[in-house]
Amino acid sequence: MVNDRGSDFLQLRPGDAPAKGLTGWLTEGLRTAIAAGRLAPGTRLPATRLLATELGVSRGVVVQAYQRLVDEGLADARTGSGTVIERHAAAVPRPAADRRRTLRELRLPLSTPDGVDLNLAPGVPDLAAFPRAAWLRAERAVLSRVSSADLGYGDPGGAPRLRVELVGWLRRTRAISAEADDILVCGGVAQGQALLAQVLRARGEAAVAVEDPGSRGARDQIEHWGVRTEPVPVDDDGLLVGPLRATGLDTVLLTPAHQFPTGAVLAPERRRELLSWVNEGPRLIVEDDYDAEHRYDRAPVAALQGSAPERVAHLGSVSKSLAPGMRLGWLIAPRGLQADLLAAKHASDLGSSALPQLVLAELLATGDYERHLRSVRVRQRARRDALIAGLRTHLPRARVRGVAAGLHLLIELPGGDDVELAERVRAAGVLVHPLSWHRRLPGPPGLVLGYAAHPPDRLSEAAARIGHALSRR
Q1: Is 341 a member of any domain?
Q2: Same domain membership, residue 380 and residue 323
Q3: Are residues 49 and 175 in the same domain?
Q4: Which of 46, 102, 161, 355 would disulfide-bridge 51, Cβ 3.0–4.6 Å?
Q5: What is the pTM of this model?
Q6: Which residues contact 451 (CB under 8 A, 6 or more apart)?
Q7: How many domains does the chain fold into?
């Protein structure tokens, strides 16, 4: 039983909490104070034991509430300094109107519209899980031994040490067949796609095949560089090879390990068909391995590149495992393309930033990167489970797909315009993607929901809001 004395801190009164809801009550009170500016960035929260005593609750309630703020990126638990409020959205200057319009048109996943407090757009990772302590430890180790030459322009293909560590990691975890010199370090998968589009265009390829539904971002990236995209349908076993053949194109971009956005895995028979297709002539598969690290309920799926290294260009990054702001990714292309890609990379930016490359190499070498991934998988499984449970309760008619891996899921709905449905959900304060944004061929309506950026209690709330919004006529 709690007392009702309360605390001078934010005038919190446990008597206002619902039965068996103390942690949620305290967390929401802290969130509200942060949003209102009553807890400014840099404010140190009371010690957990002290606040628990003042409120007359168990210390575990306060510890869990603080941890939820940390998980959401609203606070930071600092050794020796307690829990400190982080910089939050209200403290960030708003861009000018024309810039906001451009961001909306690009549909950037990290640009949250006004009135939305739960961003479930796919592509937003768990930024609060960034391994700050491990990164600082690795950075100190790198700086203690880095030479002046290591910080120069260097090889535009990437820091040699990172390429060595990456190729070892990818051989072990993705069954890649490559050498260190085959790796081109780039500014995320997006730059890898841009470099490939430029090289293919220069070689006379005016169009490539893409999955449908498939990543709108990837499609927009390729088309920005003057290469047309031709949609090819997917089903529960992945890309359909028959329609691919019918396009008459020689290059296809796909996500075989975890198809975006359906979550399908390219089935063994379909893989064999695709590899047969690519070996019939001078053809190319571009494999976007965008979130292969996140796997919960199924066996690992090897990358296609290992089966046909001279026919597959493999793309990956740390955007979903560390943070997209790192802008660190890799491209392993057939050797016949590597010289042109290296020249395009050099012309683009002279090479990726040296220090982050060396720090990532250190994380890989020490095993800290793998330990971080194991921790993140546990967090993401709990978040996925909370969202699925909430959808089953509040939206029982929906078919939920793509739950065994990744950081998003797809809900297919009985009918309706999914753009209009997404707008109704947005009016309830939740941002999701209509499935039609990611397709050009006819198909059932649906919503694509990312779950990586929010803790389980917020995802349960999001599911309730979605269910309520879609149940209204």
Answers
A1: yes
A2: no
A3: no
A4: 46
A5: 0.82
A6: 120, 380, 383, 384, 386, 387, 407, 408, 409, 459
A7: 3
What's the pLDDT tens digit per position in 240-285? Answer: 999 999 999 999 999 999 999 999 999 999 999 999 999 999 999 9
Which range of residues forms the domain containing residue 394? 96-130+374-471
Query: Which one-letter DSSP state was computed for residue 382?
Result: H
407 part of a folded domain: yes
Among 90, 121, 141, give the residue marking a domain's end: 90
Of 310, 349, 350, nearest to 332 by C-alpha is 310
pLDDT tens figures, 156-170: 999 999 999 999 999
